[in-house]
Write a structure and sequence with these properties.
Elements (H helix, E strand, L loop, with lengths): L1 H17 L2 H8 L1 E2 L4 H10 L3 E2 L9 E5 L3 E12 L4 E12 L7 H14 L4 E4 L5 E8 L4 E2 H22 L4
Antiparallel strand pairs: 1-8, 2-3, 3-4, 4-5, 5-7, 6-7
Length: 169
């Protein structure tokens, strides 16, 4: 029995190394820094559609589940002009309050989100714009898989924010 289990385990390891090795190696590759291609790839793997115009700007515009519009920026870059060798990426979604929403209701939605959710931070800036942001760093390394999963978790938390900000919709 023991040898059968050992043989099955060995076969699974060999199968994983042979057939899925390349794909697995790509998703587990550790990124020490980000560039635009890394961010766009992680966004797509998390389920986003890149909507940046043909002549890309500094921002990477994208949509995800339910047509949510957001953007990403590369930050803390070694080459800030070319946006290369960046140690951080920031994702931002902005919202307008529901018709008739009071400042107290908006603050309650923001506070509820910040209390219940772990993959972003909601706030209202000095101009009144309501935002949900996440900041992901490459300092020390991050696998491609972990990067796209963190983005996907942020997507889910942003969808949850809709329920806090627009409770009757």
């Amino acid at each position: 029995m023991r040898s059968t289990i050992f043989a099955a385990a060995a076969a699974m390891v060999l199968l994983g190394l042979g057939l899925g090795g390349t794909a697995h190696a790509q998703s587990t590759k550790t990124l020490k820094q980000f560039n635009r291609a890394d961010v766009e790839r992680a966004l797509r793997e998390a389920g986003a559609t890149i909507t940046t115009p043909e002549k890309p700007s500094e921002r990477i515009d994208f949509t995800f589940e339910g047509g949510v519009v957001a953007d990403a920026l590369l930050l803390a870059c070694g080459d800030d002009e070319a946006k290369e060798k960046c140690l951080a990426s920031s994702l931002l979604a902005t919202f307008t309050p529901a018709d008739g929403a009071t400042p107290e209701q908006i603050n309650a939605a923001i506070n509820t989100y910040n209390y219940r959710e772990n993959f972003g931070r909601a706030y209202r800036d000095s101009e009144g714009t309501i935002s949900v942001r996440t900041y992901i760093i490459a300092d020390g390394g991050i696998t491609r898989e972990n990067y796209s999963r963190q983005i996907g978790l942020w997507f889910a938390s942003v969808i949850d924010f809709f329920g806090y900000l627009y409770p009757e919709e």
